[in-house]
Design a protein that fits this description.
This protein has 145 residues and is α+β, with helices and mostly antiparallel strands. It has 4 helices and 5 strands. A 5-stranded antiparallel sheet has the order 2-3-1-5-4.
């Protein structure tokens, strides 16, 4: 018996800055349906059949990160289509592949390192300890919400 191998694709979704009222409503379900349609568009029936088990496991609306699970092999279809996608339901998006891993734990480790690097880069722009401490407090308060 051969086990089914999966790949987990960590993607950052960026869209233009808008007011919170006009922000696009993206859910994991709508995102998985959209990705299946796009793979079908670019790779035809064969591509559509290979990504039937595509699943958006995790989607965070605040950080705009999502983890997509697909089978090993057809994950190349998904990763090759992501840079081509620019529009979803009249909203302009950019999909940026950050990491492709074999386990969810490896993706989570990468997310922690990625967020830590982002915070360190952002803190580097502030002058003085008071500004840096205030920024850290704001970030922790936002994450707790």
């Amino acid at each position: 018996m051969v086990r089914v191998k999966h790949r987990y694709i960590l993607v950052q979704i960026k869209y233009d800055n808008r007011p919170k009222d006009d922000a696009p409503k993206v859910t994991s379900k709508s995102l998985s349906v959209y990705l299946r349609k796009q793979v079908s568009k670019y790779y035809g029936n064969y591509g559509a059949a290979t990504v039937q088990r595509l699943l958006v496991m995790y989607f965070n609306a605040k950080t705009h990160l999502c983890i997509i699970r697909t089978r090993h092999g057809p994950h190349r279809f998904v990763t090759s289509v992501l840079p081509l996608l620019t529009q979803m339901d009249e909203h302009v998006f950019r999909f940026r592949t950050l990491y492709v891993g074999a386990t969810v734990q490896q993706c989570q480790k990468f997310v922690v390192k990625y967020q830590q690097r982002y915070i360190n880069r952002t803190i580097g722009y502030y002058q003085g300890m008071e500004q840096k401490q205030k920024m850290i407090e704001n970030v922790t308060a936002m994450v707790r919400q």
